[in-house]
Design goal:
J_dom_sf; mainly alpha; two-stranded antiparallel ribbon; 8 helices; Co-chaperone HscB C-terminal oligomerisation domain-containing protein; HscB_oligo_C; about 0% strand
Amino acid sequence: MLSWLRTPLASIARATPRRFLSASARTCPKCGAPLPTALPACPACRFIAPVAPDTSWHQLLDQPDARNPFAVDRKALRAAFLRAQQVCHPDVWAGQPRDSQDLASAHSALLNTAFKALSDPRQRAEYILAQNGRGAEERDSLDDPEFVMSVMDSREQLEECESEEERAEIAEANRDEMHATVARIKELIGQRDWDAAKTETIKLKYLEGIDAAARGVEHH
């Protein structure tokens, strides 16, 4: 499984003796004030606890995932991320005990990881698939010769481009295919067809490689 899919919750748990607080618990156990986010952190009394290991990134950023975890509201996602960072940013916890500062830093880092993944269609799909036993592996490949040939053709066309107009046409056609692939991933995840969704997610990674080549940037 790719390293960014491994959340650091277990290591946080080992580093602190404090008890976990479920993401569904939205009242501070210390002072009784409402918690402003899914984080176990209270701005009112400076209570902070480790994030429970079973907390999903969707829960962490207040994204409902019951019907289709791929269907993320990007505007609401960003708002939840900024709201949560205001609660746990290390600067906010400066002057507090060292273990509280360490937890705040860990929460902030986890939020960054979750937000980055859920904001990106492919990374979001990879995370959801990993949560359902279909994690991405370095050895993953496609059993679709026609698609692989089309990718090779697109790369060859990019290498042989004689004008920016030609490059732009190839890039636009590829982006259209990327959008169509993302739509298929959304539908397949909604249907809980994990194997087919993984195949489309691998295809999306290939298409992202073409997009990066067209723009002259490195693809990861």
